[in-house]
Model the fold of this input.
Amino acid sequence: MNDVTNILVVGIGGQGVMTATEILAEAAIALGHDAKKTEVAGMAQRGGVVSSHLRFGKKVLSPQIMAGTADLLVGFEAAEAMRWCHYLKPGGLVLMNTARLVPPVVDLGLYDYPDDPLAAIKSRGYQVHAFDAMAIALELGDVRLGNTVMLGAMADHLPFPAEVLLESILKRFSARKPHMVEINRQAFEAGRAADAQASHGEAATH
Amino acid sequence: MAAVMPAPSHSRLLLSGNEAVARAVWESGCKVAAAYPGTPSTEMLEVLSTYPDLYTEWSVNEKVSLEVAIGAAFAGSRSFCCMKHVGMNVASDALMTLTLTGVVGGLVIAIADDVGLSSSQNEQDSRYWGRFAHIPVFEPSDSQEAYAMTKAAYDFSEKFQVPVILRMTTRINHVKALVTVGERAAHASAGFKKEPARWVMTPAGAGKRIPMMFERDKTLRAEAEISPLNLIDNGKDKRVGFVASGPAWMHVRESFPDAPVLKLGFSCPVPLEKIRAFAATVEKLVVVEEVEPLVENELKAAGIVCLGKEILPRQGELAPNVLKPAIAKLLGEPVPELPTAPAQVFPRPPTMCVACPHLGVYYTLAQIKNLTISGDIGCYTLGAGHPWNALDTTISMGASMGIALGLDKGRGESDQDKRILAVIGDSTFLHMGMQGLLDIVYNGGNVTVLLLDNRAVGMTGGQSNPGTGRDIHGQEAPRVDFAKLVESLGVKKERIHVVDPYVLPKLFKTIRDEIKIPEVSVIITDQPCVLVDDYKKQKPYTVIDEKCTGCGNCVDVGCPAIHVTRREKVVKPSGKEVELQFVRIETSACTGCNLCVQPCAPEAIVHADLTQPMRLVRH
Done:
């Protein structure tokens, strides 16, 4: 099963994690791959944890990624990236939105938000490309562009050309919201640039 | 909702198990499909309702949905019914006699077991119903199989005049995978033929049908023995052979690519002889089934030596991370160590939405002392969580009524002063709650009922019900008047109140007054779920930092848009140490419900000035 690529996308309900993974799956399928996508999303609409598993390759059996075997971890939220980092293969890459979404249990003082999720992930020997996807989305005018920013950041870490992924995103928007096509193209490119920049920062620290 | 219609035949589509079943039901020429929403089964009917040329409905509960499907099958039409696992507990009264009549038109019942409890009050194995009701069970393991087995189930159902259970799990219902779809074939209805000996199940009539059922068992077992749904994959590593079904079969193939595997697609009745022959070809036989050891026990009873729940868990999914270590241990091999999660990350339990009308209700209930609160199934079950901690029991759909009456009648000495309150949503009330309320009225219970009418089946995604005034297609439908309904059940008119859950003083006074009166009262809240179209957003709020005194009253509302920015410990003149919580409101998420404004004494919460650019979200 070595020809199967495992991508784990994590965040919280309402961030567009499941949609982003579906777009990624559609891109893989467009290239002729078999693909399965599965979520652990208990009552996700209510702000709970969402982890979306995507596996694609010649033939995919189990839809679930085993801990320690993900080729890429995409964290839509800082603490969520930390929560799931052990799913990565040793030394694997995390693309991480540094924005923090604090749940009510933390506001109520029942739990603490981790001081430095980025450092916690790095201390386990993983590579991290960290950037503030929410700030990028808000700069473009809409927080909901966050998932396209994250998809842009993934574009140069996939076993297929970035253009295929972009095509898959734009296809979806041209069918449902044609007026959103151009701004999503910009969000994609901004995410791609943010990842490249974070990649240089990562290289500099090594 | 995915619009899979009208994808042309032979298209290769990325479909969830639910979408795949819907497509197959439609292609099979099904004429009537009915269900009550329930995770993870909901999308089967939701998607079916987008297809042409068949009748679909949201039924008031699973029992009625199955009865509707049975009626259509009696009329000779193909019909479909789906539900989550606990739904069959409700529908089983009909199922257990349906097995005696059988069907004319094909009837497929898809039951979604929430293995792993992503959104349920228990974990059940619906394959039991096949044994209990003497009907066949098919178990797909992914979307393509769910599609193919649904179509096969219709042919089988009609050929043997028996309903077929399609046993699914969350890991099929909600997994998206590639499916090659086909064409719809129209199916002519045979029409209803009067035949009282078959359709009227009196004791005498039913007694004559029972031997038929036992005869059918033999036929079904013979069919299972030769069914192409039960496949053997001859692996070369004969040390362990597996019998596996459902998603667990995928996990076995993934984990042990060289092992011999017998896949059970038609798993009830169990094809004993096929398995006996397979067992003879391997050194050890392991049964991998989610959840209960049903196949395993039947094999052992038949003298087939095997292992199962001795080495595998009886709860949750049997994914590779569970299977690999268990089998390594069995073979005396080094057990692979899986990397573990960083321990220090907080839990992120589901929360109520920003501006949810239930927030005001639970904020109020948390202020009232001496209450025992009997809860029910829906978003409002979250009232058991922080910060409200204002829900004391949850059992099953509609149970808040009967449990409340039992808490009242069964009071111990220490509970004599307790007020008993029941909380139930509109859809759950119509599903199974109103019978319980009738029981409370009839038997003179002292219970205050809070009926939270948010005009939606909220937790499953805002589906319609007889209280919403819309049908499954969003078209206008007759709407239940809850005040009139409860009055007709016998609740006194002066004990029925309709209140706005966003107006806290009135809500508080109404609840406090009614719990003091020793008879049944019903308080109906009347504001819609924030996720449905009826909800209208208002101007958002913000906090004036200089005015916030850190009292934390707004935090007690429990709205996820309110965040604590700073904590400060102070000693009050009384000598008591208190922690102040200074807050901000996430204005981009706030929809101006006004709930947090009401308990804010220093008037620090004001409408946001939207002419200023919105500040970034930072903690």
Notes: The helical segments of chain A are 17-30, 78-83, 104-107, 117-122, 133-139, 146-154, 162-176, 181-204.
